[in-house]
Amino acid sequence: MKKVLIIGAKGMLGQELVNIFKSDTDYKVTAWDFAQIDITDENQVKEKISKLSPNIILNAAAYNAVDACEKDKAEFAKAKMLNGKAPGYLAKVAKKLDATFVQYSTDYVFSGMPDIPEPTGCSGSCGSCSLHENFSPQIGFDENAIPDPIQNYGKSKLMGEDAVQKNGEKYYIIRLSKLFGKPAKSNPPAGGAKKSFFDVMLEVGKKAERMSTPVKSAKGGVEQFNGVKVVNEETSLFTYAPDLAKKTKEIIEAEKPFGIYHVANSEACTWYEAVVELYKMAKIKTKVVPVSADEFPRPAARPYVSTLINTKLNPLRSYKLALREYLKK
Fold it and tell me: Which domain holds residue 149?
């Protein structure tokens, strides 16, 4: 029986990792959250984890307050400790114990300006070229793309990736994007547990339905306007926490080569496109109004495109199928 240590066990991803590993009798699971271990304390990490001596260490703890660490130096310092230095401490003790270590990262390590692929044989002169006629390029960042974060949050996560690669040996760095699932059960001291985008938008949509009032239209009639403005930019993928937990277990059990992996549900979309799909599934009649990112100024810049391209694993199902399952639950 293999011993698995899950850190950040009450978070959105952590609780799914606990569920998936506990359901398998081949594993003995130890689930620690912020109350059980402070992973920013290197001595505590060495002492507690060495005593437990797990075969597998999964780090689902993270600072995720993207805007807070952009506008506040003290918050950025917390992000650098939890996202940047702590993974290195964990990777170091995992190496000492000859344990497999999994660190989760983000699409926000990328700039948002991916290279646009050209079809094989393209010369760059399209005057008489037909190569593009049936060519549909996959736009985004694969596992070998060079990270170039444009905000402090992404910088802190890249610090963590670098620390794991420097201090670890048997490790997987799994990048995900726009995580959604059951809300976290804990409130960590750095970053704060939060609901997923879909949960927030469900609340917004239902509130808009309740508060909607008839207004006069330009043509003199009366219409119902249940408008919710949503940014129609920042294209990327969503990741369903149970699917990510299951894929993590598959990667470990298949003994995939150690390194960087991209795990996200398929079908890239903008925030607006996702909300349209959400309200259709949930039968919320609120209108969704597409707007530019300028409509909602935020301290931290977001990548314009941060779609994660997976070249190493079987693809996950569409986020729409995962979302439908989540809503049923």
Answer: 2-328
pLDDT tens-digit readout, 51-90: 999 999 999 999 999 999 999 999 999 999 999 999 999 9
Please provide residue 186's backbone torsions phi and psi, each rounded to the nearest 5 degrees: -120, 165
3-state helix, strand, coil in the chain (%, to 5): 35, 20, 45
Instruction: Tell me if 286 sits within 8 A of 279, measured CB to CB.
Output: yes
Q: What is the dihedral of CA 190, 326, 288, 207, to 10 degrees?
A: -70
* Model pLDDT, residue 250: 98
SS3 324: helix
What pTM did the predictor assign?
0.90
The reported pLDDT for the residue numbered 156 is: 98
Taking each helix axis as running N to C, give the angle between helix 42-52 and helix 86-97, from 0 to 180 degrees, rounded to the nearest 10: 30
Quick one: which of 248, 65, 60, 223 has its CA closest to 152?
A: 65
Residue 110 has which token pair?
Answer: 């990328």
Please count the structural domains in the chain. 1
The Cα–Cα gap between 174 and 259 comes to 8
**Of all helices (H) and strands (E), which one includes residue 73?**
helix 73-79
> For residues 274 and 197, is the Cβ–Cβ distance under 8 A?
yes
The DSSP string of 102-114 is EEEEEGGGS-S--
- Which residues does the chain have with pLDDT short of 70? 116-137, 187-193, 212-226
Task: Assess contact for 306 and 107: CB atoms under 8 A.
Answer: yes
119 CB-near residues (< 8 Å, 6+ apart): 131, 132, 135
**Residue written as token pair 């960087």:** 260
Indicate which CATH number applies to the domain containing 103: 3.40.50.720
Which pair of tokens denotes residue 86?
């702590």
* CA distance readout (Å), 125 to 38, 119, 121, 132: 57, 12, 11, 11
Listed in sequence order, the residues at least 6 apart from 253 whose beta carbon sits closer than 8 Å to its beta carbon are none
The CA distances from residue 35 to 6, 163, 186, 229, in Å, are: 13, 24, 9, 38
